Fold Cyclase.
Amino acid sequence: MMNTFIDLSLDIYEGAPTFANDPECHVTAYHTIDSLGYNMTQLSMSTHQGTHLDAPFHFVRAGKTVEQLDLHKCIGEALLVDLSHKQPKEALQIADFLPYEEGIVKGARVIYRTDWDRQFPQKHYFSDFPYMTLELAQWLASREIGMIGMDVPTPNPVDFDPVHQALLGAEIVIVEGLANLAQIQASRFFFMAAPLKIVGRDGSPVRALAMLDDGSR
């Protein structure tokens, strides 16, 4: 059986936008074929640049760091929740996830689609997206899922602390800044978003992918 890969990642490039308080993204030619016989690039950016994941240590003092994550949480079958009807700045509620409740169980990888990635790299991409309520975050935590993924830059732009605390405090890996979820027509698919093995830190950029069999598109 043939498989199709869909890239679910945003581009990383010189000056790629990020949140105002985060480090700037720089992709700089360090050596070139003309100068030293080969090309080499220096990369400087946040651990939360573009498509990335949050480890619990991002908001939890004693939380697990990136290299301590169970990779099963970010690699394996995922459930896709279609919320593409949601409007800018509209709340995502528990009720929006109830039709998918049967698959939102202990250890599950859950990804929700709003198609907000189409607004990248515009400035309002970081502020006006449909947002997760604290009640929804607490409900997901109570279901003991393993991962929550989204095509927005963060779950909530205002109540980011309590929402992150609810999810990461339950050791739910958060994958943010996904893209191209509209290309996935199946409700379940194989998902991959492995982080770099950054010792002792809070997050990592990822190359997120969907692997679909011939009947899943």
